[in-house]
Design a protein that fits this description.
This protein is an alpha/beta fold. The chain has ten helices and 18 strands. Helix 5 crosses helix 6 and helix 6 packs parallel to helix 7. It binds pyridoxal-5'-phosphate.
Length: 377
């Protein structure tokens, strides 16, 4: 929901064109909610969700750590005031020279999911801590993460054993249960797998210390989602179940859950039309689409709440599309979006829950449309 601060900002500043407005008060509340829900876990904010300097500075000042995926993200976190020991290089796919650069900047915590990556780290970041990512099924997630990252638990054992042999600190196991994960039990299956890796390596005298439980915490779009507290309880229950009274250090890496509900995109209706006189579905073209920041509408995965000044009136199904000349720039067609019949060309609409994965997904100048402007207040 748009906060009063955001509504006031839009009303007084009247920014031209589509833009994202992020309310830092909401980010602060989200950080506190995660701290409270999982008091024993360290929070590594996933920078890619929204790397606005104001957000990174706020979180750094609140004591957050940062999950980064590139040297540029490492530098953004450092510029925001985060010391190197609060930054992890969490991408499993890194160039060796980027590992070296991160190591020179002081980074000592790296993700791996294969022995090939371990070898790079052993050469470029000798003695560093590594954690191995295991695959999850991603079931229950609205934005699942596929098989691109992670390996099966049995292979994680080999990867971490290899890390130890190469002089690295075999530090732990990580996973990501899929983004916008609304199934509280998803972490339980993954923690069960993590425990297996811990137990197998312990028999060989390799004692892992950390489980990185990733992101996946949802933002409310059209449907209610469980609160951070419910996730905390479920996850703590699973940690107890699998690790008993030897619960390791834990990390969470919220991205969407930290900033999603803090942002609202203001957009304008450019055109409303039909494809035939007798169509009952209208086409509503906005000045923002898949290439302007709403990439997560791909396959209609994320369905954003849209607020108009006509809400409460009679609604009819609409196909929603962006302004570019690319035919893929259609957001909701399979399942049309109900919008008020009185919506007209020139109306402003608010697209809520857009604080995460929007500015970073916005194309630089496709068709001459500017990248998504953002105001952090
Ligand atoms: C993207 C990402 C996250 C954040 O995921 P959310 O679902 O947005 O919370 C966390 N960890 C890693 C390794 C990621 O790549």
């Amino acid at each position: 929901m748009a906060t009063q601060r955001v509504l006031d900002f839009l009303a007084t500043r009247r920014p031209a064109g589509p833009c994202l407005v992020v309310d830092l008060d909401v980010v602060r509340d989200n950080f506190h909610a995660f701290e409270k829900a999982l008091p024993d876990s360290k929070i590594y904010y996933a920078v890619k969700a929204n790397p606005a300097p104001e957000i990174l500075r706020l979180l750094a000042a609140m004591g957050s750590s940062f999950d980064t995926a590139s040297v540029a993200e490492v530098e953004m976190a450092m510029d925001a005031g985060a010391p190197a020991d609060r930054i992890s290089f969490g991408n499993t796919i890194k160039k060796e020279r980027d590992i070296l650069r991160a190591y020179e900047l002081g980074i000592r915590l790296f993700a791996v999911d294969c022995v090939e990556e371990v070898d790079k780290i052993a050469r470029a970041a000798p003695g560093a801590r590594v954690f191995c990512r295991v695959l999850t099924d991603g079931e229950g997630a609205e934005w699942p993460l596929s098989r691109k990252f992670g390996c099966v638990p049995a292979m994680a054992v080999d990867v971490l054993r290899h890390a130890k042999a190469r002089g690295l600190d075999a530090y732990g196991v990580s996973f990501h249960v899929g983004s916008q994960q609304c199934d509280l039990t998803a972490w339980d299956r993954a923690l069960g797998d993590a425990k297996k890796v811990f137990a197998t390596l312990a028999e060989e005298g390799i004692v892992l210390k950390m489980v990185n439980m990733g992101g996946g915490f949802p933002t409310r779009y059209l449907k209610d989602v469980p609160a951070a507290q419910a996730y905390g309880q479920a996850i703590f229950g699973s940690l107890r179940k699998h690790f008993g009274n030897q619960i390791p250090e834990t990390i969470i890496e919220p991205g969407r859950g930290m900033v999603g509900n803090a942002g609202v995109i203001k957009s304008e209706v450019v055109l409303i039309s039909k494809k035939a006189d007798n169509d009952n579905v209208r086409w509503v073209y906005l000045d923002i689409g898949k290439f302007g920041g709403l990439a997560e509408t791909m396959d209609e995965a994320i369905r954003y709440p849209i607020v108009t000044r006509h809400d409460g009136g009679e609604v009819a199904p609409c196909v929603l599309a962006g302004p570019t000349c690319d035919s893929a720039d259609v957001m909701y067609e399979k399942t049309p979006y109900p919008l008020p019949l009185s919506l007209t060309i020139g109306d402003e609409v608010l697209i809520e829950g857009t604080g995460a994965y929007t500015t970073t997904y916005s194309a630089v100048a496709f068709n001459g449309f500017e990248p998504l402007r953002s105001y952090v207040i």
